[in-house]
Amino acid sequence: MLRHFMRIKIDNDLLTAMAERWRPETHTFHLPEGEMTITLKYVAILTGLPISGDAIIGSTTKPEGGWWPLILAELGFDMPTTTPIQGRGHPSLNAGQVSIPWLVTHIHNEVEINDETLEDQVERYARIYLIGLVGGFLFPDKSNRWIQGIWLPLLTGDWDAIGEKSWGSAVLAGLYRELCTCSKVGAKQVGAAMFILQLWVWEHLPMFSPLDPRPYRRADDELNFLQNPPYDVK
């Protein structure tokens, strides 16, 4: 479901205005009408992310031997020390972070699925996609160029176990934390799933919603293909 939200153009001015009205002491927006905030209920309804299940927890320490063995074992490819990106050397790994430009380039150039592709390889490609989706979209860093390696262990192993984790709770916690950080004097960037805040504003403060929603709409046949799509996909 999450890929449907990737087409949303982020309104930086709107999000900046909301961040200026965020109060870390109460985790609420102070508005002329009163105090409002984003709750777990709204995250579940708007995005479809699960809010029950196992907590998103794990070690933030780089494993012994670094991230290369885990990447090679779970994703099926090794990562060079540097890769030319737009004529410049850009490291694919940096202090436990995976390069988003390198990952995108690798997917476009080397990933191809057809009727003869083995199931194990399809699963590897799916994990690559998940890591990009989780590390680069749900929990992006401020540069939008790196995916934290700490997400790798959470996206390996049993597929059902991955889907049963409380991703919505973790995303909301990350959003709260980044709002508290960027509301401070001197803050210039934010690294969270700000698209959720924008969707929430569109729903609760309709005067800021798009006048022309057509660019955000999906084709009817694609929506019919989805089973119980989240509210904001509809």
Spatial ordering of strands, largest sheet: 1-2-3
Proportion of strand residues: 5-15%
Q: Class by helix and strand content?
A: alpha+beta
Number of beta strands: 8
Global outline: globular
Task: Give an overview of the whole structure.
The structure is a single chain. Strand 2 and strand 3 form a beta hairpin. With 234 residues, this protein is an alpha+beta fold. Mean pLDDT is 78; it is low at 81-90. It has a 3-stranded antiparallel sheet with strand order 1-2-3. Strands 6-7-8 form a 3-stranded antiparallel sheet. The longest helix has 20 residues, at 119-138. It contains 9 helices and 8 strands. Helix 4 (100-110) packs antiparallel against helix 5 (119-138). It has helices at 12-20, 40-47, 68-75, 100-110, 119-138, 159-163, 167-182, 194-204, 220-225, and strands at 22-23, 28-31, 34-36, 82-85, 88-91, 93-94, 97-99, 146-148. It holds the Pfam family PMD. Residues 6-211 form the Aminotransferase-like plant mobile domain. This is Aminotransferase-like plant mobile domain-containing protein. It comes from Linum tenue. InterPro entries: AminoTfrase-like_pln_mobile (IPR019557), MAIN-like (IPR044824).
What is the gist of this entry?
Pfam families: PMD (PF10536). The chain is an alpha+beta fold and 234 residues long.
Which tags fit this structure?
234 residues; alpha+beta; three-stranded antiparallel beta sheet; 9 helices; 11% strand; globular; AminoTfrase-like_pln_mobile; Aminotransferase-like plant mobile domain-containing protein; MAIN-like
Give the helix/strand layout.
Elements: H1 12-20, E1 22-23, E2 28-31, E3 34-36, H2 40-47, H3 68-75, E4 82-85, E5 88-91, E6 93-94, E7 97-99, H4 100-110, H5 119-138, E8 146-148, H6 159-163, H7 167-182, H8 194-204, H9 220-225
Helix pairs in contact: 4-5
Protein name: Aminotransferase-like plant mobile domain-containing protein
Organism: Linum tenue
InterPro entries: AminoTfrase-like_pln_mobile, MAIN-like
